[in-house]
Specification:
The chain has two helices and no strands. The chain is an all-alpha fold and about 70 residues long. Helix 1 runs antiparallel to helix 2. The longest helix has 26 residues. The radius of gyration is 16 Å and the shape is elongated.
Length: about 70
């Protein structure tokens, strides 16, 4: 159960970084960090989530559905 909570928290953090980049794009202030910083974080954490899901499946921490329909 803890792995699912961790993955949900990481996904929420990814969405937060996406909206933070959107805010910076719309504001266009030179004193703020660049939008690409937050988009890069989003891509990095998305890769971490993907690797975590694959490892959790391999180690048996989570199980996929047998039949998707």
């Amino acid at each position: 159960m803890w792995i699912k909570l961790l993955l949900i928290a990481l996904l929420l953090f990814i969405v937060f970084n996406l909206f933070r980049a959107l805010y910076l794009m719309l504001k266009n202030d030179e004193n703020q960090p660049s939008m690409s910083k937050f988009l890069g974080r989003r891509v990095m954490w998305s890769a971490v989530v993907l690797i975590a899901v694959i490892l959790a499946l391999q180690f048996g921490l989570i199980t996929p559905h047998d039949r998707p329909y």
